[in-house]
Amino acid sequence: MNDRVFLLKKFPLKERDQVAVVLGEASGKITLLGKNSVQSKRFGNAFQPFQLFSVDLPEKTIRLQDYGESALHLVLGAQVERTFPTISRSLVKMATGSVLNETVLRAVPEQRESSELFKLYANAITAVDETDERACLQTLIAFLLKLTQWLGVQPTMTACGSCGVPVSELPSRGLGAYADYKVAQWKCSSCFSAQPFAGGEPIDVDLIFDFCLGLAHPIRRLEFKSEPAAQIRGLQFLETHYQFHVQGFDREPIRSLGFFRECYSL
Known about the structure:
Layout: E1 2-13, E2 17-24, E3 28-34, E4 51-56, E5 72-75, E6 78-83, H1 91-107, H2 115-130, H3 136-151, E7 177-180, E8 185-188, H4 189-194, E9 201-203, H5 205-216, H6 228-245, H7 255-264
Parallel strand pairs: 3-5
Antiparallel strand pairs: 1-2, 1-4, 2-3, 4-6, 7-8, 7-9
Helix pairs in contact: 1-2, 1-3, 1-7, 2-3, 3-5, 3-6
C-alpha cells in the first residue's frame, strides 16, 4: 500500500537505518523502519520534518525488542512530494511545528486511521508555511482546539458552564469569564463571584469568541479578534486542558510550548 505521510519524530538505528514515527493519510500514526535510509538515493531527503513524502508500506510488520510492542513497517524507499520551505527558515515556525508534532505523538493512538486528522495536520502545516510568523499563534490555538474535537474531549466554549448564559451576552471586551480547567468549561463573572473555585483564571471574552471560531471554521480561513497577549493566555488554558483531559499527557506539560513562547516573544 502506498501512503502519504508526515514525519513526526525519527532516531537512528545502528549505522545506516532510521526509525521514524509518521502520520499517514491512510494508515494513521505508525512507525517505520527505513533500511539503509542514511545517505541513500532511495530515500533522498524524505525523512525530514515538515515535508510530505510517500512510502510503500508492506502488508506485514516486524517487531524489534528495543521498541517494545510497536509494530514497525519496513520501507525500502521514500519520495518527497511537497516541501514547506519557509518553516526551516524561521524559529517561530519551527517551534510551532514542534508543538504540532509533540501533541500528535502524545495524544493520538498508534494505527488509528483517520483522513480527517491527516487533513487537519496538513492544513496546519500549510498555514504555518504560507502566513507570517505572527499568525502562527492563532494557527497553533486552532490546531490544538480541533485536535481536542477529534479526540472527543473538546472544551465547552459557547456558554457559561453554570448558568448557561451564552458567550454572545457577555461584555464584548475584557476579562468577563473564568476558566474552569477541571471540567473543561468557563464560568461567567457572576457565577464565579457567587461560587468561586480553586484555580479559576480570568479569560478574555474575545478569546472565547475566537475559540468558538477555531472549533467551527477551517484553520486557513481564521482571523482572530483577540489580542496576542490574550492568545498567549489561551495557550495556557489549552495546555492545562490537555493535561487534565487528554490521555497520554498525565498532568505533564506540552514541553515544546516553552520553546514556542520564547521564540514568539523575541
